[in-house]
Amino acid sequence: MVKFSIIIAVRKINDFVKENITHIKGMSYRNFEVLIITDEKEEYDFQDDRFILLNSGNIGPGEKRNLGARKAKGEILAFLDDDSYPEVDWLTNADKIFKNSHVYALGGPAVTPKDANYSEKIAGKVLESVFVSGNKVCRYIPRERMGASDYPSVNLFVRKQAFIQVGGFKKFWPGEDTKLCLDLVRKHGRNFLYDPSIVVYHHRRPLMLSHLKQISRYAQQRGQFARVFPETSRVPIYFVPSAFVIFLVLGPAFCYFLPFFWGFYYWVIFVYLSVLFIASAIAAFQLRSLRAFMEFLVVVFMTHITYGLYFMVGLISKPKLKLRAIDQKTGNYIGG
After folding, report:
1. Assigned domain for 263 exists
2. Residue 47, by phi and psi: left (phi above 0), alpha (psi -120 to 50) or beta?
3. CATH value at residue 159
4. Domain of 109?
5. Separation CA 287–CA 7 (nearest Å)
6. Average model confidence (pLDDT) across the chain
7. Does residue 228 lie in a domain region?
8. Would you give the DSSP letter of residue 204?
9. Residues in CB range of 94: below 8 A, 6 or more apart
10. How many whole angstroms separate alpha carbon 79 and alpha carbon 106?
11. pLDDT digits (tens, 9 = 90+) for 137-183
């Protein structure tokens, strides 16, 4: 029975973390430890000696996870966000998969909590829509088992040996998980595994400013990665929102000089709005709410515009990547 080390990086113990702790304790699999890394030293009675509280000072999430990994005693590292929590069979299913020695890393869906409030459910439906997430929708709803080369750390397993071999997380955020996955794939020469049975529940950001702020950070980092890490970031789907923004803004000027282009411009707008209306209708039906139709429509449009703009910002700005790795022998940071 393999031992898992669950690693959760947080600023401080909060209500999300407490919810997470409760669900972890209720899992069917029992051979695990939990390392929770906060900024400052805190006291918390877990009433369970498998839980370990560490403090790291004010450093990034990736560095906190590295600290947890160095202290971990398990063979497999399991990363969770503080605002997520696992399904009862999360580790049971992961244990079955890791019996295959060729599996060096594993990702699974982070779905919207069943008891989420209305705002969370709308945000969840936005992320779950293929119109927004494209072929990355498997991150938010279960899809068929497949290979993966890039996966968020909200629900990510890595064999400790493989994690140390690539130097762990590098010192930048967001996107530290993307770089870790890229390093793992480069090291092993093949993709790792995505499996729909490895489920966690992930709280969504409130609408609309918090949601768009999160989207802007991810988009800007992805734009920078498209410059320096082409293997997983220089793919067409990430460029589409920016192309759409450019089309919307420059299309009329282009049409001014080439009037015959107006027909194509209006056709693209019509197709976009038609798909958006259909997606909004589906979301409203699923949520059993007419109000959801207009809210979903607006949020999706603003998500596309925000992602498109900030991806371009990241693409044209000078990358500020602070790359620091873990020395395999000493466990200390090297470089950067």
Report:
1. no
2. left
3. 3.90.550.10
4. 4-206
5. 33
6. 91
7. no
8. P
9. 4, 76, 78, 106, 157, 198
10. 10
11. 999 999 999 999 999 999 999 999 999 999 999 876 677 899 999 99
